[in-house]
Specification:
Layout (H helix, E strand, L loop, with lengths): L1 E8 L6 H12 L5 E6 L14 H12 L5 E4 L11 H12 L3 E8 H4 L8 H7 L2 E4 L9 H4 L4 E3 L9 H9 L10 H10 L4
Parallel strand pairs: 1-2, 1-4, 2-3, 4-5, 5-6
Length: about 190
C-alpha cells in the first residue's frame, strides 16, 4: 500500500520552503509520495491576493515536475465549500481506498490548534500526522505529545512565507531566489502579485 502524505495549502505562490519541507518529509519518513493539495478559492471569500485555482495549480505543477515523489492534487477543487480536511480524507479514502494510505503533513503551529479541527479525533483514528518544526508561540497539547499517530520529523525550519513573497513582489523587490525557477518564470511572465 502506497503511503501518501498530504500537504494542504493555498500555495499562493508555492516557494522553496514548501519544496524543502515536502522533499524532506518524503525522504526522512515512511511516506512514498507527498501530494500538494491546493486549497481552492472559497466562493464565500474572494481575497484579491489569492490567484485563481488554475494559476496556483500551474505553479505547483511547475515546481514539482522534476521531483518524482512530489505530486500536485486538485481533489479539493471539486468538493463542496468550505473545505474541511475530514471531508477531503473521506473522499480520498473512497476514491483510492485499497491502494493508498493517507497521512497529513502539518506544521507544529497547526498541531497546537489541531484539537479545534472538525472531527479531529476521527482524523487521528484513521490517519498519521507528520509534523515539521515551525517557530511559533504556545505549546503542543498533552494529548498529541506522545500520541502513537503523531510523528515529529526533524525537518529544516523554513521561515519563508507566501505573504512575504507577495508583498516583496508588489514592492518591486527581487524574490527570485525564494522560488523554484519554473515558478519564478511563470509568475514573472504572468505579472502576478505586482
Amino acid at each position: 500500500m502506497k503511503q501518501i502524505g498530504l500537504y494542504f495549502g493555498t500555495f499562493n505562490p508555492i516557494h522553496i520552503g514548501h519544496l524543502v519541507i515536502a522533499n524532506h518529509m518524503v525522504e526522512y519518513s515512511p511516506l512514498d509520495e507527498v501530494w500538494f493539495v491546493i486549497t481552492p478559492q472559497s466562493p464565500f471569500k474572494t481575497k484579491q491576493s489569492l490567484l485563481d485555482n488554475n494559476h496556483r495549480y500551474q505553479m505547483v505543477f511547475e515546481a514539482v515536475q522534476e521531483y518524482q515523489k512530489l505530486k500536485v492534487s486538485t481533489v479539493e477543487f471539486d468538493l463542496p465549500q468550505p473545505n474541511y480536511t475530514i471531508h477531503t480524507l473521506l473522499h480520498l479514502k473512497e476514491k483510492y481506498g485499497k491502494d493508498y494510505s493517507f497521512s497529513l503533513l502539518l506544521g507544529e503551529d497547526n498541531l497546537k490548534s489541531f484539537h479545534k479541527w472538525k472531527n479531529y479525533e476521527q482524523i487521528l483514528q484513521h490517519h498519521h500526522l507528520y509534523v515539521y518544526p515551525r517557530i511559533s508561540g504556545g505549546s503542543i497539547p498533552e494529548q498529541f505529545k506522545k500520541h502513537a499517530k503523531v510523528h515529529t520529523i526533524d525537518a529544516p525550519i523554513m521561515e519563508i512565507s507566501s505573504t512575504f513573497i507577495r508583498k516583496a513582489q508588489k514592492a518591486g523587490k527581487n524574490v527570485r531566489p525564494l522560488l523554484p525557477e519554473a515558478v519564478w518564470k511563470f509568475m514573472d511572465e504572468m505579472n502576478f502579485y505586482r
